[in-house]
Amino acid sequence: MILSKKLIFVLFVSISVLLVPASAIRGFLEKPRNTKNDGYLSYVESPEYRNSQECPILESNLLICDPNLIHVAMTLDVQYFRGSVAAVHSVLKHSSCPENVYFHFVASKDSHFQELRQMVKFIFPSLSFKVYIFDEFRVKKLISSSIRQALDNPLNYARTYLAEIIEPCVERVIYLDSDVILVDDIQKLWLISLTGSRIIGAPEYCQANFRTYFTDNFWSDSKLSKVFEGKKPCYFNTGVMVMDLGKWRKGDYTVKIEKWMKIQKEKRIYELGSLPPFMLVFGGEIEGIDHRWNQHGLGGDNLVNSCRTLHPGPVSLLHWSGKGKPWVRLDQRNPCPVDLLWVPYDLYRLGSIDSFDEQEQRAMLV
Question: Shortest CA distance to 290 belongs to which of 366, 210, 205, 360?
Answer without folding.
Answer: 205
